[in-house]
Amino acid sequence: MSTTGTISRARIARRKAKTLGLALRQRGATISLYDDTGERVESGHLAYIEAYLADRFVRTRPGPPLSAPPAKWRPWIEAFIVEQNAAKRRPGTTRLRVMCLNAFARAHPGSDPLTVTRDHLVQYLGRTEWTPSTARSVRTTFRVFFRPLYDLGHRRDNPAGTLPAIKIPRSVPRPCPDHVVQEAYASIRDPRVRLAIRVAVETGMRRGEIARLRPADVVGRPGEYSLFVVGKGGHERTVPISDELASMLLAVPTVHVFPVFGGGPITADRLGVLIAQALPGEWTAHTLRHRFATMAYQASTDLRAVQELLGHVSPATTAIYTKVSDKSMRRAAAAAAL
After folding, report:
1. Which of 66, 180, 262, 280 lies 20 to 30 angstroms, CA to CA, from 158?
2. How confident is the model at residue 66 (pLDDT cuts 50, 70, 90)?
3. pTM of the full predicted structure?
């Protein structure tokens, strides 16, 4: 590892230690951390100290903090958060659901979770500016929130129990074309963005999964390398990768492949913006995932294999991501001719 890389890592560790109220002092290859009383709390080589700090450092989520819910909703939403944590829901999922509940509570001043009716929820879901996907997400939040209130006897009824099902219109896969990827590779100057696109192209990972990627997630040996991925809902999977990509990821000197100033991984939203800006036209990181699914299915015709690679719970979801080739459709249609 270069001296410059080591110095950069030490600076990041020093800033992170300061955020935690610790002082970092280095003597040769040994780094020590001291608290505000001057007592040494930990000591070791740089990689060990980086791991120690990473376990204790909590990054502030970008954007405004969650607004406080109305007083009548506050204790119930706080109890809901406890329930979600006990169910091991991902923090991002819980945050999204709390935002949804806060928005509903503010739109219905004077209401409380024990008197809200099914009609209130139905009228709220009927907002015309929402897409079907947004409305279904809100519906899911209502069902998850009100069910415990009913089960535990806080309410005599469950106002979300019979909400109308929301169907999502069938969409057509939109895989990013090869020439767009090739043009991006040729024009990108930032090697980190180029690496992020390559990971998306060769693994089909979600942008959030790529943002959290670490060199330590590379497992296996030459000829058998894979990435260990923890996806939506905490579901785990492994995605085979080439030796070349594995070598590039293993050579990254930081804890995360795509770190930000002060430590920690880049946010999924920011990474998505960088990838979209690098791709010519209106293509996104998600269309690279569509491309991977389409190419993998056309090469294998094994939908279950593609489902495992993408980390989908249902093969029905995988089918949405895979575009059938024009040749296959013409061959199928031709078979019906007399």
Report:
1. 66
2. low
3. 0.66
247/289 same-domain check: yes
Tell me how far apart the alpha carbons of residues 228 and 213 are, in angstroms, rounded to a whole number: 9
pLDDT value at residue 262: 67
For every residue of 27-95, DSSP letters joined together read: ETTEEEEE-TTS-EEEEE-HHHHHHHHHHH--PPPSSPPPPPPPTTTHHHHHHHHHHHHHTT--HHHHH
41 and 78 in a single domain? The answer is: no
User: Domain check: are 309 and 259 in the same one?
Assistant: yes
**What is the rounded distance in angstroms from the CA atom of residue 111 to the CA atom of residue 71?**
10
Q: Are residues 39 and 82 in the same domain?
A: no
Evaluate if residue 2 carries a pLDDT over 50. yes
State the residue range of the domain holding 297.
178-330
Q: What is the CATH number of the domain that holds 252?
A: 1.10.443.10
Q: Are 128 and 212 in a shared domain?
A: no
Locate 273 and state its tokens. 């913006």
CB atoms within 10 A of CB 88: 8
The answer as to whether 35 is a domain residue is yes
pLDDT at 198 over 50: yes
| 46 shares a domain with 86 | no
- For the record, the structure tokens of 79 come out as 């109890």
44, β-bridge pairs: 31
Q: Give the residue among 41, 98, 44, 94 at the shortest CA–CA distance from 74.
A: 98
User: Number of structural domains, the chain?
Assistant: 3
In this model, does residue 232 exceed pLDDT 50?
yes
Catalytic residue set: 206, 232, 286, 289, 312, 321
Percent of the chain at pLDDT > 90 equals: 49
Q: What is the pLDDT of residues 93-149, one digit of tens each?
A: 888 899 999 999 999 998 999 999 999 999 999 987 888 888 999 999 999 999 999
Q: Which 3 state secondary structure label does DSSP give 229?
A: strand
Residues 6+ apart with CB under 8 A from 207: 200, 268, 271, 272, 275, 285, 286
